[in-house]
Design brief:
The chain is an alpha+beta fold. It is 38% helix and 26% strand. It has a 3-stranded antiparallel β-sheet with strand order 1-2-3, covered by helices on one side.
């Protein structure tokens, strides 16, 4: 197992850009092809954006932890928040959850 990064960020819009920059740096370190690097950056950016906007609604203060590590041959990205719990609605109601 190898830890690439762990970021503790405020749940504010600028955290989205910080997370995307970390993903871009990781993609460069891993020498990912451009298409894969773009997908990695976008996946992390969108997941962090969702946490910023939905875990802490109405501008509530909060924090996020964004991390990346290698487990065997897999790259594991984790976005943690301590905000409003996420509840799955009816089937198909949360399209984005199936994409990550």
């Amino acid at each position: 197992m190898r830890d690439f990064f762990s970021l503790d960020l405020p749940a504010l819009p600028h955290a989205i850009a910080v997370a995307r920059a970390a993903a871009a740096a990781l993609a460069a370190e891993l020498a990912l092809a451009e298409a894969r690097a773009t997908r990695l950056e976008l996946a992390l950016e969108e997941t962090v954006a969702n946490a910023v906007h939905h875990a802490y609604p109405d501008g509530r203060p909060g924090r996020l932890r964004v991390s990346a590590r290698q487990e065997g041959s897999a790259l594991v990205l984790r976005v943690q928040d301590w905000g409003v719990p996420y509840h799955l609605g009816p089937a198909g109601a949360a399209i984005g959850i199936g994409m990550v």
